[in-house]
TrEMBL record:
The chain crosses the membrane at residues 20-39, 45-68, 88-105, 111-132, 139-166, 178-199. InterPro entries: PAP2/HPO (IPR000326), PAP2/HPO_sf (IPR036938). Residues 135-196 form the Phosphatidic acid phosphatase type 2/haloperoxidase domain. It comes from Micromonospora tulbaghiae. Keywords: Membrane, Transmembrane, Transmembrane helix. This is PAP2 superfamily protein. It comes from the Bacteria. The keyword Membrane applies. Coiled coil: none annotated.
Length: 200
């Protein structure tokens, strides 16, 4: 009985971490954090943050929700690797459109770099997932922390504990293996850091 209660508690904790630190949540928060840091007025934040939010989060998340409602996707996390190509492609096209708009309104380099990171990491995940089910949760979590460290300071290194927690949650729920999680971290972290530092 005790083991059963512990198993249920572990499953609930894993589900909470998976939902709270899902890629959709992180790609919503990170551009807004960047926009808040570089904006010198409310108007700039609304303009730059609004573009980033719309094209990095609202449209891609809308595609996922629509796909689930239509029965084209099994769930919002797209657990079936064979279903990932279409939503990832549409999401990348949306982010690319957002980049063009941010360039047109002369958004600051740091914000532009964050959105390029979203695109590059998303493209890399899409490419790998064509052949193998890499953990996008782990890749995006690692990419987020890798960008927050130079963007917000050394204290953001505490976020690596959350990356580990996300990895544990994906394995605990049976959605990924540890090699898939570790591959996601190895892809997302260095790729995001290198891209951001090259552009910011």
């Amino acid at each position: 009985m005790r083991a059963s209660r512990e198993d249920r508690a572990g499953a609930r904790a894993a589900r909470l971490l998976t939902e709270a630190l899902a890629p959709t949540v992180l790609v919503t928060a990170l551009p807004l954090i960047a926009a808040a840091r570089v904006s010198r007025s409310a108007g700039q934040f609304v303009l730059w943050g609004g573009i980033a939010l719309t094209f990095c989060a609202v449209i891609p998340i809308g595609v996922l929700v629509h796909g689930v409602r239509r029965g084209r996707l099994t769930d919002r996390h797209v657990g079936d690797r064979t279903q990932r190509a279409r939503p990832l492609s549409i999401g990348l096209a949306s982010v690319a459109a957002g980049l063009l708009l941010l360039a047109a309104v002369r958004a600051p380099a740091e914000l532009f770099a964050v959105i390029v990171v979203v695109f590059v990491v998303g493209a890399a995940c899409a490419l790998v997932n064509h052949w193998w089910k890499l953990s996008i949760h782990a890749a995006v979590a690692a990419a987020t922390v890798a960008v927050l460290v130079p963007l917000a300071g050394p204290a953001a290194n505490l976020g690596w504990a959350l990356v580990a927690a996300v990895g544990w949650s994906r394995v605990r729920l049976g959605d990924h293996t540890w090699p898939q999680v570790l591959a996601g971290v190895a892809l997302g972290g260095p790729l995001a850091a290198g891209t951001f530092l090259a552009l910011a």
